[in-house]
Amino acid sequence: MGLVVQKYGGSSVADAEGIKRVAKRIVEAKKNGNQVVVVVSAMGDTTDELIDLAEQVSPMPAGREFDMLLTAGERISMALLAMAIKNLGHEAQSFTGSQAGVITDSVHNKARIIDVTPGRIRTALDEGNIAIVAGFQGVSADKKDITTLGRGGSDTTAVALAAALDAEVCEIYTDVDGVFTADPRVVKKARKIDWISFEDMLELASSGSKVLLHRCVEYARRYNIPIHVRSSFSGLKGTWVSSEPIEQGDTKVEQAIISGVAHDTSEAKITVVGVPDKPGEAAAIFRTIADAAINIDMVVQNVSAAATGLTDISFTLPKTEGRKAIDALEKNRPGIGFDSLRYDDQIGKISLVGAGMKTNPGVTAAFFEALSDAGVNIELISTSEIRISVVTRADDVPEAVRAVHSAFGLDSDSDEAVIYGGTGR
To answer: Is Cell wall biogenesis/degradation among the key words of this record (predicted)?
Structure first.
């Protein structure tokens, strides 16, 4: 008997009919001889509605109480799903994140998992039950407070449980049929990828692909847990994410030269103007940002002007952290010694990802030629062995993505990408 962890996103359990459809799929997995653990997100837009409600009550809700509120959405889903499974004649038990043994640090609203002790889950499975776990949440190791894991937290919960339980696979069910070569909302002819390596998926996820989040893939790679991304609305095979290519029949799926094109319009750009070009200045800037607990993405430093000995440093970060970053830098302005700050939240990032690009000359040239032919101006450039990223104007992103996708022969012969639930999660 194998052990399978399944995760269902909010669009999959958006209403009573969706919950009953998911319950049938779970029972089918149980009938196939598997032990089944299910991680579930809040129904539809429940989390967003709870956030709106909190902001109406308090403009700056306390982190502890905010987490207590947000975890209610997943608890509703898990209980309803357990009821639906029992109505189909199978036993199911629901567990909160803390009951499931998801132990986190004490950072509210974006906690990180530090351990998983799934004793109660194992007991439930040994008794023949299906275990339903509320995603996105855990309990802090020190104060035993309820915490939430931030964006993509349910995916991370599922992979963490799969690792702790030594599951054969972690199935991530969403409202598209797998991972595509681009966002099908932007590129209608995007193709479904049959298999993708952890490394390529990490780059796509960190570059804006929303089907899987970076932390989830990082956790899966660390513990070598294969992920199968599928739609809960169809019975089609999805995308396998693993360390080695999978076998399909008598053939092995090969690594593509280019895995896909990702984009992200959730970032902003800050330029620190007039920085003295001497050792320690960049360190002071980014220590200020780090002390404010802000993650940055791309960094570019201009060549200093010979006459002034000053340079400009630009970096990108989440829009939601923009005000906090500006305030932190202004507060430390005397210690750093810069002239001014510029803030721009009308930018977008386009990334080309593929392990094959490091051994195929001409990829970089073709990438920039495609952007040039589309009339897209480039503001920042960042590269790794398997990724090229550029920052452009936000308005240029859709056209840029389509141009790059076509230039590298990624277009499907037909509009095969179906978005069943409408949210992409």
So the answer is: no
